[in-house]
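Extended Data, panel c. Modelled sequence:
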Amino acid sequence: MWSFFPISDPLRKGIPSSLLPLVLALLVCLCFPPGLYSQEKAEKGQKQFNTLYLEGKYLFYEILKREAEHMQISDKDRKMLVRAQKKIPGLYEHLMNFYYCRTRPDEKRSVNFRSHLLNFTKNMAEEFIQSITEFTPNGKASPLESVLYSTGYFSRQMFPIYRDYRRPMGRQTKAHWALEELKVNEAHSFSRGEGVKLAIIDSGVDPTLQEIKSRITAWKNFLDGSKPVFDKGKFPYDWSGHGTSIATVVFQVAPEVELAIVKVYDNETMSTVPPSRWSAYLFAAGMIWATQNGANVINLSAAFQVDTKAIREASKYCWENNVVVVSPIANVTEDEHEKTLYFPAAYPWTIAVGGVEKSNGKLRVSAHSSEAVYLDVVAPASDIVVEMPSYLDRRRRPVMAFGNSLAVPFVTGTTALMLSAMDGQALLKLKEKPGQLVEAVREILRRTSSNTILGFDEPNPVSGYGCIDITKAVEAAQNLKVKTS
């Protein structure tokens, strides 16, 4: 049966028949290296995708042009939409960057990729048009400009200018009251977060911080206009400081955790208009991407007052994949009713966090922390010393910050320590069923937290189950026994 293969008789005679197939396989590998084949296949796939991408781009702008003629908008906005490919040329790439992730086809099903890509390109264009007609501007921007702001299209993309590419955290950052109050160093005797991937979905991060940069193993910038499949895009530099402050706290609690930085927000532009469905899509796409790229814990320090389908489904998707999502209840400046809902914290699939502060040597619930019947636990959220991007502040001094956003990384960091300390077999067993690991983490956090220290006898909408106790939580996770069915 080997007569067709060009092997000479002398070679055939010198090889036992039992080894001939092995030798032939070796020769094939030498002549056609697997890496070369894989590279050619990848290049072919990228070429096909690029062709479809351009086809989708043409369709997208044609729809904008066609629909603009019939819309009740200003002449200025109409002219911009009609000439969108020239006036806002990167819009298609920018929206595709997160819309693709949000609507990617189910890998388990056989899908015609061409029809799928062109179909959601069409949907994206039509939804963008619909958003413009629905959006109520705040007086400073037109409906079109407002939607563009809410998608993060005008976010800063330039490379920051800074002299030092690496700098250590300040001493003040490593010595604020919350670290001592929570006995973080004591918890590190059990775990430091090794082997756990934690995604920070926020405004990006300052990579000049030596401690933070050394922990980053993955990143995604959803505000960049790169192609969603083959182009990685620009690094998610932080232009507001929010994401960097969150990363600062995470590192203090879990110094050996792997960080995945996901940028979905830019304070400079997106805060100028109310959040829209596109803002929700960005956060949802970030949650989906983090889960699909191996995150075990997600730090989502944001609160929406509107229940959006995108974030709701993304929260459930994370829960089903046993990814722990931690989010804050909102900050308030005046008393609000405890039934006010903030998402994604209000969803049953996430862990809701409030804030505490220290006053006259005692812990108490922060004055800026709202009430919520779905509140799980509370953590330090006032007078927290954090780092800011070096390229935003030449003095590079740490700043004092407050807000429930800062309580979240104390809880996500604690969760990372818990997962790292868990027995490997117990961890695998918990992951066998959707949401089982998330609920185990929630139960431990609640059980080991203290309400007594805050002056409460039982769980309540003000403090939930109490202030977290990191050491007790990590110990409980380490000793967790999972029953076998």
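The CA atoms of residues 447 and 465 lie 8 Å apart. This feature is highlighted in the accompanying rendering.
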